[in-house]
Design a protein that fits this description.
The complex is a heterodimer. Chain A is an all-alpha fold. Chain A has helices at 13-30, 35-53, 58-91, 94-98, 104-134, 143-170, 174-188, 203-206, 210-222, 232-265. Chain B is of the alpha/beta class. Chain B has 2 domains: 5-229, P-loop containing nucleotide triphosphate hydrolases (Rossmann fold), CATH 3.40.50.300; 238-323, Alpha-Beta Plaits. Chain B has 11 helices and 14 strands. Chain B is elongated and about 75 Å long. The chains are: A mainly alpha, B alpha/beta.
Amino acid sequence: MRHAPHAAYSISRSRALLASLRLAVLSFLADPQWLVPSMIAPVIFGLVAYELFLGSGPWFVIYAILGAGMMSMWGQTLYGSGWATGQDRELGTLEPTLSAPTPYLYVVFGRVAWNTVSGLLGGAIVFVVVAVTYGHPLPIVDPVAFALLFAVVIVSLASVGIVLSAAFVYTRYAGFIQNVGEFAFYVGTGCMFPVVLLPFWTTPFALIFPPTWALDALRYQAIPGYHGLPWGFAWDLLGAVVTTSAYLGAAGAVFRRVEHRVLEIGDLSDY
Amino acid sequence: MTDAIETHDLWRTFESRKGFFFNELVHTEALRGIDLQVDRGEIFGLLGPNGAGKTTLTKILSTLLLPTRGSARVLGLDVATQAHALRPRIGLVLGGERGLYNRISARENLRYFADLFGIPVERRDRRIREVLDWVGLTDAGDRRVEEFSRGMKQKLHLARGILHEPELLFLDEPTIGLDPKSARETRKLIRGLVANGVTIFLTTHYMFEAEELCQRIAVLTRGRIVARDTVAGLSRLVGGDRTIEVEGYGFEDAEVGAVKRLPGVSHVVSEEFGPRLRLTLRVRTPELTWETVKATLPGHPELALRERRTSLEDIYLDLVEEEA
């Protein structure tokens, strides 16, 4: 075998992203604990929501089941993305990964890509299971538009997940921060129910997060007569695109800064 | 051609907070002015006790930690400002139980890192087979890493370190915790790498390992390099390549003083074992023999004397003790 030193290979970021995605799939298959929060629990919540709100009219049922679907997407996409980086710390794989020439951001992108797919799948499963169980499809006005907005929601969640992953690179205490903020974020961004139902002072904070806009837009589209944020569907959609783009754009700078900072601190192997 | 490694006045200070409210800032100087030069193609050993700063220095040189001040160049590149250009050309083996994805196979672990290092797809699988074969893990390649023994994990670490064919490999205590057979196999693998032109920067606790593998050695203690030379050079530095050990009971201070003042004795270490005292003498001249020492202590018929070649462990302990 040849061991002679080799001129450095050129790095492909898309290939690194795909490698990370592949690793995420393999890790998921090897340790399917995420099946519970991402697929099983939301289905149960979805079925319960259907039973609870069946008498309140079809649109209210959609309203409730959306909450269950969001639970899956939120858990898998946002929570899972940060958790995977925390796992890197725990396994001690953060150091060898950062010693590779590929920027860590692309590793995170790969994981988030898988979490996005599995989150979408989880959300879709909620709708399918509820429809199959009760023998009729849910009354969605425009399924194509609904699916597209579903994708917008998931990308908006992913954008937060990517930035949150930086916290896990930065500090081993990120899991604590995430757990503290978990339900505040879940409720505050409208995953569970519309933000307009929350006290008015929470809205400015909620608007910082892309999912707030995307989820409100999704509800405008899915539920006839829905009264969400006062500016309506179009501005919600624009807000979702702008804030998501801002998060994704900032992610590169955030990761560069965080990677530099952790090399200053020197606690990459701590967990 | 530039040196493999060159550092000038390299310092690293860690900050931590203590106290109930984390209001007390504590500074720990892990490295204090390291000057180092490593040639290309050599195995350079870094020895030092726990907490001496070996891993800190290794991490700085392998771009995983920034120095507080001073400069470090590896393969001619600055570790702080040119890390991205340097990383594809160096390998790092931190070893131990951690650092691997345990729930997937060894082959999948290597494939992931091969992709991160940009090994061409058409070459990747062949290269993975090569390194698995090289470390003797071909048959275990498709097993989950969590089923591996400590030695197998260490071999997998090594395989990952050389996967992208680095010019310089950092090995941080590569045989720690391994059984003698695995440790010997690992040392054989390391020699094989050097034969192929790879420069090795090795940190270890094991003196015989450093003595067996390294062309040059630096001794690091309390963040400073206290000596740096070949084993023979270090031996001269601490005062001789022969050691005479004297063990007995009830030595008077005057007797010990007389032994220390013998011509040719360069360094004396005293160790007490209950009532027994052992004097370890580093001897600089061939004229001084154990008979001379015995003649200096006439009132001790029970005296046990032993003469041997000064080992790297002797030298290391002398240097560390002097610094302490």
